[in-house]
Request: fold
Amino acid sequence: MLTFDLYKPNLKQLQNLINKSVEVKRHIVREDPHEIGIRKALNLGHTAGHAIESLAMIENKPVLHGYAVAWGLVCELYLSCKHLDFPHDIMLQTTQFIKQNYGVFTFNCKQYDRLYELMTHDKKNENNIINFTLLNDIGDIRINQQTTKDDIFDMLDFYRETMGC
Reply:
């Protein structure tokens, strides 16, 4: 069984995990170099995350890409629960982990339209429709998932409520 103590990581185990992750990504990129199929699976958290990252840049408060994707993951796991069968308890566990380890990017409801507009520029979109990569369950990836503007605003509400913005 793989165990990981955040405060005393086993560096050899961590190195092996990173190497394995890089190999998986390398394989997927080789298999789908133009991001028309399986490579889209790597985009979980990126639609909302890119919007958060762009808003941070606009506000002259740049954030690391990985942090923005983690915050986007909170948003997109909410959509995964709402539209698919992703387990609610795992979404809440993941949200708490992200909040504790990556902090919070704050925004208010007056910025929802701007975040929505930023999502419309994502490279994964087709025919002016915002596409998300979501999860039905761990390892059960669903690409090209769409939702309504109201659901996206609900997603942003969820982020702010659970992250304490």
DSSP finds six helices and two strands in the chain. The first helix runs from residue 11 to 31. Helices lie at 11-31, 46-58, 65-83, 88-102, 112-119, 149-163.
